[in-house]
Amino acid sequence: MLKIVKLTLIIIEPIIMLQQYRISVIAFCSRPQIGLISFFLLCFLSGSTVFSQETVVKYLSGTDKDHTKNWDFMVSSGAKSGQWTTIEVPSNWETQGFGTYHYGWEEDFSKNEIGYYKYRFPSNPTWKNKTMKIVFEGSMTDTEVKINGKIAGAIHQGSFYRFKYDITKLLKKTGDNLLEVKVSKISADTSVNRAERMSDFWVFGGIFRPVYLEITPQTHIEWTAIDARADGNFVMDVYTEGKLAHGYVEAQISDLDGKLVGEAFQAKLDHKSGKVTLNNKVTKPALWSPEFPNRYQVVVRLRDYKGKIIHSKVEKFGFRTAELRRGEGFFVNGVKVRFKGVNRHSAWPTSGRTMSKEISELDVNLIKDMNMNAVRMSHYSPDAHFLDICDSLGLFVIDELTGWQKKYDTSVGRKLLKEMVMKDVNHPSIVIWANGNEGGNNHELVADYAKYDPQKRTVIHPWNNFEGTDTQHYRAYDCCVGSLYNGKEVFFPTEFLHGLYDGGHGAGLEDHWNLMRSKPLSAGGFLWSFADEGVVRLDQEGRMDIKGNLAPDGILGPYREKEGSFYTIKEIWSPIKIALDKLPQNFDGLLPLSNDYLYTNLNQIRFSYECRQLPTPYESDTTVKILEKGDLQGPNVEPQQNGYLRLPFQHDLAKTDVLALTAKDPYGREIFTWTWSLKSPIEMNERWLSTKISWPISVDEANNTLRLQLNKTTIAFDTKSGLLQSVISNGTVIPLTNGPQLAVGKASYVGMKHYKKGDSLYVDVQYTGAWKKVRYILAPNGLLTLEYAYNVYNSNPHNEYPFLGINFNFPENLITGVRYMGRGPYRVWKNRMKGNSFGVWNKKYNNTVTGESWDYPEFKGYYRDFNWVVIKNKAKDFIVYNGSDKLFLRLYTPEKPKGARNENNSPDFPDGDISFLHAINAIGTKFDRAVDHGPQGQLNRVGFNAIEGKLIFDFDPKLQ
C-alpha cells in the first residue's frame, strides 16, 4: 500500500507542476510514444531543468504604493532633513514628509535635494553561476548605486525609465549585502532638467517605482522585440548576453490558455551580434484591437547545440498592424481609425508618481467607460502594469519620451529612448511613439526608434507638423488655413479642448467631433486631460494642492471624482449613435442607429429597455416604477453603417413617462443609457396639478402693496415696481422676491391691475419695453400661475445674448437643496448638453468650485429640460412647475475659481438667484473663449417674435 501512495505522489506532483508551467514544457512532453509513468518522469525531469532556467525576480523594495518596504533614508535639505530615519520604497520622498514640494518650472535649480538610501539583503547559495542584475523601474532623477561600497555603474540620468546594473561580481557569496543609493533631485545634466523638470506637472524626488534583482543564467535572453502583423506574419528579434559559441533560439506561440498555435520555430545564434531574428506565420490569428484585445504569448528558449535549455522567457503580444498612410489616414488592421483619446499623467494625491496596478485598472476602466479608445502617455512612459492593462482591456496608446517643452541632448536622449523602447516595445496597445512634447523634440533621435522597434511604428512630434502628421494643440474650431482641419496631413491634435475647471473637455467636444468626422484626414484627437493632478501637502496640514490653475485640468478629480464632462464625453463618443433628442409623437419602437465602431457589428451588442413611471413632486424618494422591460440582441449593422433597432413594446406607451435604453458591449460594459421623456412638461405636470380643492380668494391694496389672500397663504406685490415682494404660507415667510426680472433686456414699469375671472384672481403687471406680458393667476386650489412674454429683439446691435429668461431672488443661506424632474444630476452649459439622464433627482446644496473642491455633482448652475422643482430651504419648501415647453432651471451663480486668470471658465450668469431660462451660455477652455470652439459656443440669437413662458407655483404643497 505504501508503494502505491509513493507512486501516486510521483505522478501527481509533476501534473501539478505541469499545470503551472505547461507553456515551458508542453512541446517537450507531448509525445504519445512514451508510456504514462515514463511520460511524467520525463516531463518532471525536463520541467525541473526548464524551471531552473527561467528568470527569477526578487524584490528589494515593495511592489507599489500600497506594498512597500522600509529602507534607511536621509534627505539633505527640506523637511526632516539631515538625520537618518526610514522611508517607504517605492515612494516620492515629498509624499513621505521629506524635502520640499516643487511644481515644474518653478523649481530653483540652484537648490538641489539629495536622498541617501541604504538597504541590506542576504546572499543566496542559488545565485552561484548566475548573472545578477539590479533593476530600477524609475528614480527621480540622477541615481548612483553602490553594492557593498563599490559603484555599480555610471550614474543614471533620467527619471521615468527602467535601468539596470550587472552586480554579479559585487555581491558577497554569503552574508548580507549593502545597497546604497544616492538620488539627486536635480540632474547634473542640464538637458535632463530642461526636459523633465521645467514642466507643467509636479516634480518629485526619490525611488518611485520598484527595485528588484533579476536573476538569470550567465548566458541568457536579455530582451525581445516582436512584430506580429495582422496577416499572421510574426518576426521577433531576440537579444542574448553571455558566452555560447554554438546554439539556437527556439520559440513556440500559444494563446493565453496555453493552447499551441502552430509548430515551434527556431534560428541559430549569432554570437557576434547577440541578436537573433525568428520568423513565423500564423494562419488567421485573432487580431488585437481596443474592441477585441486578443492576445497571445510566445515562449522563447535559448538552447545549446545539444538542445539543452539554457534560458527561457515568456512574452505576451498581439497580432495587429498599425500604419500611417500619408495623405489618407491612420490605420490599424487595415481599418481607418479616429482616436477618441485623453492625456494621462501617472499621479495619485497621496503618493505622487508612485502608482499601483489597482490604480492602473481603475484609470483604464474609467477611460473605456467614457467610450474612449486611446490614451496618450503625457509626458513620460508609464508603469509597465498600466500598459499591460491597456493591452488586456484594449486602448490605443501613444507612448512618449519626456521633453515637456525642452529636449534631451542627443547623448542622454539616446540612452533614455532605448530604455523606453526596450521596456515597452512588445505592447500591442502602443501604436505611436511621441518623441517629446511641444518643442521638446530632438530630431537626431528619430531614427533610433526603428533600431529597437521592428514594427517601425510611426514617430510623431506633438504640437508640430512632422512626417505626414499634424498634431497641433489647442487650435480653434475649423482653424488654420492650410493645416490641421484644413491641411494635407493626417491630423490628430494630441491635446485639444484644455479642460481647466468645468470648461473644455465635454464643452465644445460635439462641435469638434462632428467637424473631425467630416474631414477625411482626421484621425481624432486627445483631450487634456484625464484627472486633476492634486497633491496632498503634508507640509500644509493635508491640503489638496492643485497649484492654482496649473493642475486642475481633469475630467476627473484627483481621486477620480467624476465631473459632468465625464458623461458628456461618454455620450458623444458612444460608438452607437441615436440621433433623436426627442422621440416622434407616434413613436412605435423603431429607433435609427449609426454604428461608429471600428470592428464591431451591432449584432454583438446587447440592448435593454425600460418603460419608467416617475415619482410625483410630493414623494420623498426618487424611486421609479418599471412598467415594462426587455432585453434584445442588436441588429446586423456593420461598422460605419446605419440601421434600425425595434423595441418590442407589450403595453400602451401612454402610461410611460420615460423610455430608457441601455447598450452593452460584448464584454458587458455599458456603452450608454439614453433616456427620452414621452410627455411634454405640460402633459407630465397635469397629473400633479389637477385638484378639486377650492378656497375663497381675497385681495387688498395698501401701503404700496397688493396682497392676495387664499386659505393660509398670502402673496404680496410691490405696487411701485410690480415685483413679487413676499410670500407667507401657514405663518412662515418664503423669501422668494424681486421677480420676475428679465435676464437681458430693459423694460419700464407702468402699473398693475387686478380683476376676477371666474373663480380665479388675475393680476396684470404692465410695462413698456422688452416685457410684453406679465400676468399672475391665483386659482382657488392655491396654485399661482405666472404667464409671461418678452421680446429683446434690437436690445443690442447684433441680437446676440448670453442667456434669455427671468430671475427671482432667494437667499442662498436658506437653501438646503432641490428635488427636481429634468435631466441630471449634472449641470449643463450651452456647449455641453449631452450626458445626463431624464428623471427625478435629489440634490443637496453645495458650493463646489470645479477643480478646487470635489463634491460632485455641483449644485449651482444650469439644469436642462426642467419640469418641476421642489425648492428645499430652511423656511418652507415650495414647488415650481414648468407650464411651457423647453426651459432651463438656474440655481445660483458658481463662484469664480480662485486660480482663474481669465473669464473663459467663469462665464457671466444672470442676476438674481433662481432663474427660468429659455437659453443659457457656453463655457470656454483654459486658453480660449467659448465662441472660439464651434457653433454651440456662440451667443444666443433672437428673432422678432416674442418669447413666452409659463410657471406654476405651489407655496403650500403636501410633501412627504
Give an overview in words.
This protein has 960 residues and is mainly beta. The chain folds into five domains: 2-52, no CATH class; 59-216, Jelly Rolls, CATH 2.60.120.260; 330-572, Glycosidases (TIM Barrel); 576-678, Immunoglobulin-like (Sandwich), CATH 2.60.40.10; 697-954, Distorted Sandwich (Beta-galactosidase, Chain A, domain 5). The protein is 13% helix and 36% strand. It has ten helices and 63 strands. The strands form 16 sheets. The protein has a nine-stranded antiparallel β-sheet with strand order 49-50-51-52-63-59-58-55-56, with helices on one face. Strands 3-2-5-11-8-9 form a six-stranded antiparallel β-sheet, with no helix packed on it. A hairpin with a 5-residue loop joins β51 (771-778) and β52. α1 (2-29) crosses α2 and α4 runs parallel beside α5 (384-394). The N and C termini lie far apart (77 Å). The model is unreliable at 1-51 (pLDDT under 50). Residues 771-876 form the Beta galactosidase small chain/ domain.
List the main descriptive attributes of the protein structure presented here.
disordered N terminus; hydrolase; 960 residues; mainly beta; 36% strand; Beta-gal/glucu_dom_sf; TIM Barrel; 10 helices; beta-galactosidase; Jelly Rolls; single chain; 9-stranded antiparallel sheet; 6-stranded antiparallel sheet
Summarize the structure in short:
The protein is mostly beta strands. It has five domains: 2-52, no CATH class; 59-216, Jelly Rolls (Sandwich); 330-572, TIM Barrel (Alpha-Beta Barrel); 576-678, Immunoglobulin-like (Sandwich); 697-954, Beta-galactosidase, Chain A, domain 5 (Distorted Sandwich). Helices cover 13% and strands 36% of the residues.
